[in-house]
Amino acid sequence: MTVSVSSQMMLFLFSMGIGGAFGLVYDVLYLGRLLSPCGRVLSFLWDCLYLLACGLFTFLFLLAGNAGEVRFFLLEGELLGFLFYRFTLGVLVSKAMRWFAARTRSAAAEAGRRLKRPVACAGRRFGLFVSQKCGQMKKRLPKDRKVVKRCLKPARKVMYNLFHRTHYKTAGPNTPKK
């Protein structure tokens, strides 16, 4: 199988583009880290998932573009594309994401301050409503138990017991044997 120089050059450029896309995905995950209060363990798990996804995508790219042959220049192209993105456009994107995260956090804090009093008031009203209903239920519970006991039929008058007592006699000491 012959490999032309032009096809290798195209694969190298594609691999640089994929590396740049990996950098962009990493920046998006960085924004998620900035917005969520996650610890080191969760950050480590996100990084592991990112590396697994990059490895899988690289494998699929090599499988489709180079018939599964691993060539060093393709891996080098991905690394160069990632680094090129990181030190050029990635710097601007990171600054923009930090600015966006700071604005989002301050807006969320302001919204929390504004919503704190109405939510607390609604919570107190709901708690009062629930406690009133529980008090009413406690008052009605003894009366309801008496009503339920009165409404039930005695066991000897239930239809099932009447039917089985007359049709299916159980073998006892006074029943004749066949």
Explained architecture:
The chain contains 5 helices and no strands. The protein is an all-alpha fold and 178 residues long. It has a domain of 121 residues. Helix 1 crosses helix 4. InterPro entries: YabQ (IPR019074). This is Spore cortex biosynthesis protein, YabQ-like protein. Keywords: Membrane, Transmembrane, Transmembrane helix.
List strands and helices in order, with pairings.
Blueprint: H1 5-35, H2 40-65, H3 72-87, H4 89-151, H5 159-167
Radius of gyration: 37 Å
Mean pLDDT: 81
| Largest sheet data | none
- Global outline: elongated
Helix content: over 70%
| Oligomerization | single chain
Query: How many DSSP-defined strands?
Result: 0
**Element-level helix/strand string:** HHHHH
The secondary structure category is mainly alpha
Number of helices: 5
Strand content: under 5%
Unreliable parts: none
Distance between the termini: 96 Å
Q: Gist?
A:
The protein has 5 helices and no strands.
List keywords for this structure.
178 residues; mainly alpha; YabQ
